[in-house]
Amino acid sequence: MAKKLGKKARKFARKNLQSAAKRNRKIRNQINYRRPRRGGSAAREDGDEDVPQRVDDATMATNDATDALINGLEFSEDDAEIDAGLSDSDGYLSEDPGCPYYSDSEDGDTVKDCIMQDGLDRQNDDINIDIKKQKKKLKKLLDKDPEFANFLEKWQTELKNYRSKEDSDEDGMDSMDDDDVSNDGNSPNTKMLTSKTISEWCLLVSKEPKSPALRNLLNAFRDACQYGVHSDSPSMQRFQSTRVFYQIITFVLTESDNIFRALLEISDDANKGQIMNLRNSKKWQTVDPLLKSYLRNSLELLSQLTDNKILAFVLTRLRASAVLFSAYPSTSSRLLKILFRLWASGNQSLSLSAFLMIREVASLLPDSLGLCLTKAYNTYLAGTKLVNDRNTKHIDFLMNCLVELYSLDVQKSCERVVTSMVQLNSILRQASKTREKEDLRKIDNWQYINCVNLWVRFICCNYKDYNLNPLFSQVLQVIRGVAHLFPGSRYLPLRLKLAQMLNELSACSQMFFPIPSLLFDCLEIREVSQKEETQKTKVNFSSMLKVPKNLLKSRYFQEECVLSAIQVLSAHFAQWSYHVSFPEIATIPLMLLKRLHEQTTIEVLHRPIKRLIDQVNENKEFIERKREVVSFSPNDKASVDSFLQEEKNSGNASFKRFYSSIAENHQAKGKMVKPIPKTQHYRQLLISKGVTPLCGCREKNYQVLM
Amino acid sequence: MGKRSGSKSKDKNKVILPPLLPPDVDDDDVHISDEDLDFYGGKKNFAARFHQFDQKVIDRYVGRTAGDEAEVERLYEEREKRKASRRPQEEDGDLEVDPVDALPVKTLQGELVYNRAKKARYEENTGSLKSKAQENGADAKQSMKKDELKGKSKSKKGDDKVKNTQSQIEAPKGKLHSDVLEEVKEELSAEELFEKKKAQLAELGMAMLEDPEANIRSLNDMLSISNDKDQKVVKLGLMSLLAVFKDIIPSYRIRQLTEKELAVEVSKEVKKTRYYEYTLIRCYKAYLQKLISLEKQSHFYPVAVRCMCALLDTAPHFNFRESLLASVVKNLNSSDDVVRKMCCETIKSIFINEGKHRGEATIEAVRLIADHVKLNDCQLHPDSIEVFLSLRFDEDIREDETEEQKMKPKKNKRWQNQEAPKQLPVSDKKKTRQELISKAREEVDADLRAVSFTLGPKERKSIQRETLSALFETYFRILKHTMSISNSRSKANIVSPGASHPLLAPCLEGLGKFSHLIDLDFMGELIACLKKLSGYSDRQDEIPHDNTLSVSERMQCCIVAFKVWRSNLEALNVDLQDFFVQLYNLILEYRPDRDRGEVLAEALKTLLWEGKQQDMLRAAAFIKRLATFALSFGSAEAIAALVTLKHLLQKNSKCRNMLENDSGGGSLSCLVAKYNPEAKDPYLSGALASVLWELSLLEKHYDISVSSMASNILSMASLNPTQNPVPILNVNPLEAYRDLSIERELSKPPSKALSLNIKKKRRGKEFVALSPDVLQKADCSVDKDELEEKLQSHFAVLRGISENERLRAELNHTLSSINMYKEYKKQKKKNLKLKIVKKKLARV
Predict the structure, then answer these.
(1) What is the DSSP annotation of B20-35?
(2) Contact A463/B at CB under 8 A
(3) Tell me: the pLDDT tens digits for A615-630?
(4) Backbone phi, psi, residue B177, to 5°
């Protein structure tokens, strides 16, 4: 009982506490650091063994052991990049003394007002009062006994010595910490920054990028980025107003890309090669420290910020200068790490901008592509361990991102895809050989299914442009095998998912897949438990693979079953709705549907079933009418292919419309987000904008469907 | 008393301690120590010498029951008596070297220990006279042996304890005092006793194998050992007895001697043999009785059954086979998978190796199973019927039977008519000579048979015939039972298929296999029965669900009917049309993963593929249905359907019109002008009017073999009716199904490393998976004001934090400074005191 309660409480915490999201991100970040370094693939198995375990512990997400089962799926990562170059100096730039500093007295007064009155401030005030009190007390003591002052002084010097010793000890351990200001050789400027100063600098820099004010500005940017990292650093004192802070950060972020490009005299579409060539030039020597400082401090800012919107803003700005990262491999790897953390986070716009940045980096810096692919895949696997109603959309998004990334360089990514496919296949073989619970559980979990789904989508996107046949057959084998290994109505959600994948594959490859064979179980009537459940347990197939036993006989489960089956089946029909043999495709499913319609006791289902039957019948009669007048025979391939091609391209068939309405219905309910309905949406959007769609397989996809 | 902590449990204590033990046992300090468990584990090595000992059995051994003292006492008395009687014999046996001694035992430490057990036993026996408690043995030599054992366990037990024990064991060497004896008894912990008994068993067993004739009486000893209270010992005893019996059971059946024979004076040799046989049979009987009684106890169950199976397997000809068979047959229905499998294997081996027992055991077993089925009302595990599949019959047995029956009356007549006059001319002399010759021949034959252990063809035939009738009786009983159940079931009550008729599937399989042996008289009834079971009914409007049999079972019925019909040279005049109708509808009821695809493929093979000439209308209906079927089902089912379809098209060239789209629905007019896919009757479906459009879609099938098969079939359209296309897949539907089934595919070794040959083709920057409306969201930059506000708040938070930190530090500093004041005062006082003291000192 206690355990159950605990689980519930944790669930509540996860759902309702805002801090949870933050914490999750933090934890994810930690995991990246914690990942044990591995010598080779041999050590991978045990290395991975404990990583997911830790995730479980950390997020307290679940006690379910199944989640930790697939560890072998992940790619091994070379983590050599992690600590490289982190101990570089943080890029304090010596300033040109000629630059003006303006002191503006009016700023100082406004400081207090600008700061929001939050809990911390009140606490600070309290402490302030306390300090005053205590100081008074101390003073009294000192007055009373002047000798005590001596004693105190002695003690304080002792304390200082002791502390500095301790500090140096810690320094030894914290050598990774690159923000150790005290060790920096040239002492940073501690002059106050005022709004006026910044404006002046900005003006100077915008006029002439080469002006020395740039250094000052970048220094200020550096301090702004590191603001709050070391509370006792002198740079803290430079900011007295929030306005200054804002000014510096926005200006540097928005303008620096243009400035650097102007300084280096490179065009907008410069690639890595050009940058590398530049590195030896004299021009580079002068810009190098500035650029380094800018990039490093932007990263610092990224890791400091917590607000999603600002993060997205910073990322969009930074994306413009992605190519500049190529000069600093260590910095770019650090960037990627931050990016992947942000990408996996739940916020949509943030993870989208993070992904766009990743993609930019991956496409501009071919060296980092491999790392990107591996990291993205592993992040995806870690993120898809748990699927619930809320994150299905996000997982779908992550999957699409991954496909995007892997499609950048299909040749390179195919190696990885093949490795992953071989892993999936061997897990399947093992399970089919032993049929043991443990082995089966390696398949019956989200990681495996999401992984299969990922590659299905990858193949769909690239099938037309590349020869992916071996992969295609492997994926098919896995899908068939999984469907075979998990019979019975308990696994209907899983099989529906497989059927959807087959639909996708069928749409992209124009091959025929007997989808109905996977759906028969949905269309057969089962006994409905007589007693009405008091609590309405909503069954949502998009977030489950296996139906809990207590729901098997429930009405909702059967409703969901039939509705999902109708959806998948109509997608199948929609694809072949213009084929000459449509009436035959529909024969057997139609018989089952009719029987179901007659026998089902669930009122809600009558209408959708009837609608599908009517639509199919209509289309069937239409095809039959059309084909009665043609004269070619089934063996005349060309004629069969051209049959009703015109109608098909006009995209105006009733069945298509029916299908899209079903799909939209489904989407509106917040259920499965499928790529096919999305393309519908996509096309509508494009048409409404008067844009011709991009060429690519998406387009073919919907051409087939429309 | 602390030493006793080494004993395994208090129950065990009770067992090993002789009844005489004073009841001052302190149960509190009895516990199972880890060392003991280790010790047991470590003994595996030692036990390995007795290959026949089942390690598993020992390992499985968990608890032990408390023994009642009366039993123990009785045992001791028995033993004592027996040993006393053997004493004189053993005394001289002591002088010669025991054969067992030749084989040393390797101990855990790796040192070779020569077996002085024989002597020890003798000593033990002498000791037994002195005290009832001799069981634990206090003799010097035995204690030496014990010392060794102790030494072995020394490393595991506390050293001090062992020393203590040793001193106590050595003590009784000189004086045999009763007090000391008792202590020694206590020292003997259970494992030592166990080791001792194990050694004893091994010894006896070895002796038995060495010279069964001389040592036959050791069987009694072994039997009594296996009466031990210690379950482990009992199991070991059973297993070693099994090994011994397996070895010494003669290849003939021991006959009970008649009174007359007993009365006759016989030579010493014969006497000895008789005695040997008598003892053997007596012990064997006792052993079997023991097994049968132990079988009822759950912890001995697997062992007992294993022993019985092994005995039955090795000596199906020997005495008491009947009881063995009965037990084994009963256990065919065991819920324990291992036991059931064992029994099945045994029965199968009896069926297969008929040479061992001349087929007598076969008939007995079949009869027993038949009775069993009858008694349990057909509710048994399918395995119990499945064993029948390994029965073997001579091909000609039925024919002969019928022939003989026909011939007999004729023969008799001829005999009466012809033989009588022929016999007349033969002279008496000749007659006697002939008789003599024939008599001699018969005798020789009999001898030969007795030696070669084979049956005459006639006897063999009669046994087989009896077996067959028992077999079919069982099968028919199951069929009838199924019928009665499915008839009594109401329509509403849909039970999960297969659950109520566990025996039907193997029964149908068996009928299919032995279909050629079924008597013609039964045929009609059988076919009618099968028809009913296959779900056929005259009323066409009935929904197919009211049959309680699963689809696979109904298909099997169809298959069996056809097999029966075909194996009787198709001479049977039965209308199998209904079965075609049934299959035609069953095809649609088939569900992958629920029903067995292989049965479907076999049905297609038996009914359609193997058939000779098909009715055109029917063939057309099946062709159309199979094509439609292939569109909705997986690739394995699809290929099976297509193979059948192709075969049908080849056989019925007129149906090839369906491949072509002639306006007006084909040249062949039929009753129904329009195709109705939902028709229940193939004759009324109007399939001939349809066009096989399915094939054009099947050409696009993802599975290469399906699509190529489809195009292969389509190519038939252009050929003339007598021509056939180039065969691409020359297999029957069943093979085709198996080739494509996912299980087969997965069991194949994984294809060699995937090699993707992808041309370098860098994609542009366009997106492939993410839709633009998603991408659009990314570009909507943050509002300036909002950004400012957010950045400011970020700044404020950071500032607040750092301020807080700073202030706290300051506060702490101030506070500690104030605290220091106390210390300062203390020090001051101390200094003051010190000064005062110093001053005082200085003063002094």
Answers:
(1) TS-S---GGG----HH
(2) no
(3) 899 888 888 888 888 8
(4) -95, 145
Highest mean pLDDT among A71-85, A469-483, B441-455: A469-483
Question: Cβ separation of A403 and B821 shorter than 8 Å?
Answer: no
Name chain A contacts of B725, Cβ cutoff 8 Å: none
Could you report the per-residue pLDDT of B139-173, keeping only the tens digit for each? 444 444 444 444 444 444 444 444 444 444 444 44
3-state secondary structure B110-123: CCEECCCHHHHHHH
**Interface contact flag, B758 A461, Cβ < 8 Å:** no
For residue B106, the 8-state DSSP code is: E
Q: What number of CA atoms fall less than 13 Å from residue B303's CA on the CB side? A: 31
CA-based angle B658:B660:B664, to the nearest 5? 85
Contacts of A505 in chain B (CB under 8 A): 702
Cα distance between residue B275 and residue A422, in whole Å: 71
In chain A, what residues touch B754 (CB-CB under 8 Å)?
418, 421-422, 470-471, 474
For residues B707 and B714, is the Cβ–Cβ distance under 8 A?
no
Question: Do residue A588 and residue B628 have CB atoms under 8 angstroms apart?
Answer: yes
Partner A, chain B 98-137, Cβ-Cβ below 8 Å: none
Q: Do B777 and A407 touch (CB under 8 A)?
A: no
Q: How far is B822 from chain A (nearest CA, A)?
A: 10
Contact status, residue A504 vs residue A693, Cβ threshold 8 Å? no
What's the CA gap between A604 and A570, in Å, rounded? 18
Confidence tier at B13 by pLDDT (50, 70, 90) = very low
Number of helices (H) and strands (E), helices first, in chain A?
Answer: 30, 0
Q: How many other CB atoms are found less than 10 A from the CB of residue B297?
A: 13
β-pair type (B112-113, B105-106): antiparallel
For chain A, say whether B452 makes contact (Cβ under 8 Å): no
Q: Determine whether the interchain pair B632/A513 forms a contact, defined as Cβ–Cβ distance below 8 Å.
A: no
Chain segment B211-258, per-residue pLDDT in tens: 777 777 777 878 887 777 777 888 888 888 888 888 888 777 777 777
* Closest residue on chain A to B774 (Cα): A352
Q: Give me the half-sphere count of Cα atoms (radius 13 Å) on the Cβ side of residue A499.
A: 29
Segment among A151-155, A194-198, A515-519, B6-10 with least mean pLDDT: B6-10
Return the C-alpha torsion angle B304, B310, B316, B321, nearest 10: 0
How do the domains of chain B map onto residue ranges? 187-362
Closest CA relative to residue A413, chosen from A75, A40, A37: A75
In this complex, is the C-beta atom of A679 within 8 Å of any C-beta atom belonging to chain B? yes
**ipTM at complex level:** 0.71
Distance from CA of B241 to the nearest CA of A (A): 37
CB atoms within 10 A of CB B173: 13
Taking contacts as CB-CB distances below 8 angstroms, the residues of chain A near B737 are none
Q: What is the DSSP letter of A94?
A: P
Query: For residue A483, which residues of chain B lie inside 8 Å, CB to CB?
Result: 593
Rg (CA), chain A: 32
Task: Report the alpha-carbon distance of residue B312 to residue B52 in Å, rounded.
Answer: 17
Task: Output the six-digit token pair for A653.
Answer: 């068939």
Among B649, B673, B672, CA closest to A634 = B649
**Chain-chain contact of B811 with A134 (C-beta, under 8 angstroms):** yes
CA distance A51 to A49: 6
Model pTM score: 0.68
Nearest residue to A562 (alpha-carbon basis) of A485, A666, A482? A666
The DSSP annotation for A518-546 comes to HHHHHHS--PPPSSPPSS-----GGG-SS
For residues B174 and B163, give the distance between their C-alpha atoms in angstroms, rounded to a whole number: 18
Q: Which of A516, A599, A489 has its CA nearest to residue B543?
A: A599
Amino acid B453: pLDDT: 54
- Using the predicted structure, report yes or no on whether residue B44 has a pLDDT greater than 70: no
